[in-house]
Every structure is written in C-alpha cells, then in structure tokens.
C-alpha cells in the first residue's frame, strides 16, 4: 500500500486532469439531522463519480511500467468503466468494457461516448467480470480489476481533499461496492494520524461485506439485486475485506426505501442529484442520527449517475 508522499504525488497527477471536488456543510441537513453535516461532492467529478480518479492514475501507472500495453478490458456497473474509458481515451488505448445485461442505459451510453466497446453479458457484475477475464486472454489486452492498489491510491485523493479541507471530523459514512472508496478513506485517515470513525454502508439486498465484517471471514451471497447498482457486490475482494475489517468502525445496512428517501433529501436540501450508492451514506446517517447528535459528520456523495426515468420515480416517491 502507498505512503503519504505517494498519495500527495497521486493528488498532483490527478489534479492535472480533475479539479478538486468541493465539500460543503449544508445548513438544512444540519437542521434535519441535529449534527454538522459535510458532503463530499464526488458527483461533481468529470464523469459524475469518484472512480475517475482511480482510473486515471491506474492507466498512467500501467503505461509507465508497461509501455507496450495494446489495450484494456474491464467489467463494471458503470462508474469504474467510465473512469477507465476516459483514461484509455486520453492514453490512446482501445478498451472493451463488459456490463451485466440490463445495466443502466445512461451509464452504458456514457461509456460508449468515451470510446469504449461495450459488451453486455451475464446477470450480475460477477458474471460480467468472468467474461471480461476471458476476453482479455483472447484479445491479449490488459485486464483491469475492480480493486487494485493504484486504483485505491487515485481514489484516495478525494479522501485527502476531505480530511485536509474539513478538520476534526468525528465520523464519515461511505458506500461499499468493491471497496476502493472505503479503503481509500481508511488508508488516508491512518496516514494523516486522524481518529475519525469510518462507517461503511451496504444495501440490505447486497450485504456480503456486512456479513463478512460481522463474521470475520469472507461471506458471499446468492444475489445482489439492489437498485443502487454501485453497491451490488456479492463477492467481497479479500484485499478490500482485510482493510475494511481492520479499519472500519462498523458497517450499516440500508434498505432501497431508505436510499430512495436519502436521494430525495439530497435534492430537497442541497439540490444535488445522487445515484443510489451516492445517497447511501446519507441514508445511514439518517438511520443513526441519534448517535450523531452534536457531532461533526461527513457523507460521501460518491456519484450522480442515475437514469432519468429511475430518478423521476424516486423523486415522485
């Protein structure tokens, strides 16, 4: 894993392409929840989600180590794929991205617009990931995983911005998908010597990480069918699990109904769009608002990439 100078170097490299995203303390959220609530607005990133940071750094590092890479292959539900499609386009590399059947139409369109060849395969992310591995072998291209130290180092630049921009945070709520977002927060907190609690958030419909955390071992689930597709993980990565087990305070489960309610709160109180995973941290804070009274808390609005029809349904209640 990286040290603090390496993280600051990543921030310099990422900042060359991506401006720092803001963090705001929203008065209406504070009034609603009884604590000081800061929102880290990764929905303001160029692809509408935090993943873009990791994709750019990963591709830069890959090409520095292996300049003869001919192309990339990966699997995604959308935000990871957009980040790599943008990075591949900047590097002049072809990229093939595998998504599950029935994936978000607007995320698919965004990846195609960035130049990716998109393939729909399988019923969930894990089946798409297996197909991506097969294609990478057939094509002779580099398989990009969903979890990698360089992806975490790039993503961790958002954590560095948050912790250096907002002092003395008592707690941060962050959604968990494959784990890069929460692992980046944990590592950055530890490097800065902070005592901030980091609370992971999963869906009740995709709670493999929560079960694993509680049982102290990797637990997989049969399904991950939440509408918050950024959290639809049923097979935790061992490397991510070890970091989360060692560094998270707890993992909170939130229902799809609680996530939808938090999406509406974001719209009402801040006029920001949040996708399902992006609203999960706020949903968990709402659930735990009694224990956070009078404290200084942050939530990670990790992305805004929700299809228009789905968002209209959510706003309509």
Key words describing this protein structure:
four-stranded parallel beta sheet, 317 residues, alpha/beta, Rossmann fold, 10 strands, six-stranded mixed beta sheet, 13 helices, single chain
Written account of the structure:
It is a single chain. This protein is an alpha/beta fold. The chain has 2 domains: 214 residues, 3-Layer(aba) Sandwich (Rossmann fold); 93 residues, Rossmann fold, CATH 3.40.50. It is 49% helix and 15% strand. It contains 13 helices and 10 strands. Strands 1-2-10-7-8-9 form a 6-stranded mixed beta sheet, sandwiched between helices. Strands 5-4-3-6 form a 4-stranded parallel beta sheet, with helices on both faces. The longest helix is centred in the middle third of the chain and has 17 residues.
Oligomer: single chain
Proportion of residues in extended strands: 5-15%
Strand order of the largest sheet: 1-2-10-7-8-9
Helix % is: 40-55%
The arrangement of helices and strands along the chain is: HEHEHEHEHEHEHEHEHHEHHEH
User: What number is the mean pLDDT?
Assistant: 96
The name of the CATH architecture of the largest domain is: 3-Layer(aba) Sandwich
* Uncertain segments: none
Brief write-up:
The protein contains 13 helices and ten strands. By secondary structure, the chain is of the alpha/beta class.
